[in-house]
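Batch 3, record 17
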Amino acid sequence: MSQGGIKRIIGLIRLYGLLISGAVRAKMQYKFDFIASILLETVMGAYDYMVAVAALWRFHTIAGWNIYEVGLLYSVSKIGWGLYRAFLEEVDRFEGYIIRGDFDAILTRPYPSLFVLASRNFAMERLSFVIQGTAILVISLRNLLGLGVLDWSGVLHLGLAILWTTLITCAIGIATSAAAFIIVRVEELQVFTQNAPGTATLYPLEIYPTWLRNMLLYFIPLGVGNYIPVRYLLGKGGSWLNLVAPAVTAAISLAVAVRLWHLGEVRYHSTGS
Amino acid sequence: MTTGQEDLAVSARNLCKAYFVPVKKSGFLGGLRTLLSQEKRRVDAVNDVSFNIRPGEFVGYIGPNGAGKSTTVKMLTGILHPTSGEVLVDGLSPQKQRKELARRIGVVFGQRTQLWWDLPTIDSFDILSAMYDVNASDYRAFLKEFDDLLGLGEFLDTPVRRLSLGQRMRAELAAALIHRPSILFLDEPTIGLDVVAKQRMREFLTTVNATRGVTVLLTTHDLKDIEELCPRVMIVNHGSLIYDGTLESLRNHAHLPTILEVKYYKLPEGLSAGSFIGPRGEGASAPLNGTWQIASVDPDSRSVRVLFDREHSPAPVVISAMQALGEIRDVSLEEPAIEDIIRRILEVK
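Prediction for the assembled complex:
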């Protein structure tokens, strides 16, 4: 990369930091609201996990995966979701910008609209998902490392799986919100492309019918982020390609998502004044 | 594009923006049938609009609600993509070179804020100066200059949400100029402001235009803005440009009468509203060439109001005709209100 390119990226990172610190300070004006939302998120998220634990307690294993193994799927997916929500909260809430016409102001800035949008908020309250996910990850790893099912290089690969899952989750979020340029309201679509697949990939994909499994691998590829690498790392099949597939999927899905975003941007209709 | 247009601040050629809205079905399951129907109605928000703006001009862009003003401004600033036509702003395509252009233009939408609502006002300027790569010494100079011009200093530490509307609009204007843009787009910047705040804003805009040579395109519903600021006016209605010229020729264009009010020591006999008067003060019952209509006669104040068209009859000629009727105590002239002129233009088209 050229020196000018590196300088530009450093400039962007500095600007991002400045914008985020402004957004966080603004949020701190409403401390009660902030603390209440963190508490609520954590409690709600824990409830989610309780359901999974209850199911596993009952059956001991799901499709041959024990509670700690499912814990890996769960934590990779949850941490990825939490990071997506923290960094791209405004992308997730994008339909509001379309409805209110607030996207106008974003387009008057000399930066890509996704950057301007993302830099408007860092949703710390969403880190509650990351905290939950990390807690489950630590519990699962203690067991699996102790039994020798996983070694430390496996832990490193899990770290990468979290990164790719985060990027895939971001891509799906961006692509879904890009639909708002045309259909305006995307809340229902988000349930279909983000929430439901997100919940589905907390469990091993073996339990689903083929069509659903294929959908979670090829159409909304959240399963490629956690299930594919974790399956290989736990010795449940696959090859080293299972570790590469998430990176490739992340790159492709991000490229597609950003392309869809640009296609949408051209069709942006704004609102009357 | 032909050469030469690159030197213009703004050039728009046959600019069109059409929306396609689904045709609403009525009756049984109307909503669902609307959703499923392929039937779309074309709405031309902006229809074949062409104009040039030279650097340093101050142009007023007016028209009724929904006429296409905002849509045009949004196409010029890269927010919307035209359905057809070409547009160049400062030599750049707002659509293809949006990010580059954003560094050269300033935009204020009166109805929306571009400031950080919950932060002290100074923070917005800090952030914007970083966003537009304004170096530290230019930034200090900016704060100093705009404190002098707009009195920013008095509310820099106040969160934006607690500013009065007048203060906020001053801050918005400063924010739009922080990166020294060569063109300023203002969409109803005086909306909701009180008389004093409006006046202050107008004086500031005059200064910015005169001293910095900033080109300004202003949309407004306040025609006083236009009278005080804009030598050139463009009027848009139903998406089409129906007038583009000076404010002065707009007055002539409308053929609306000027009113001459004459106060007499003793009210002349035989004058009545609706009758006509000739150049030597002679009465006439029907409009002839070179006669003027009497609008009203007020016995209490002993005054008579006469309508005349400045283009055909110089005011002194009308006054001397009135003088032939009796000794005049006082005269005053009332120009047609710009509201009336524009209403007339919109009605005629």
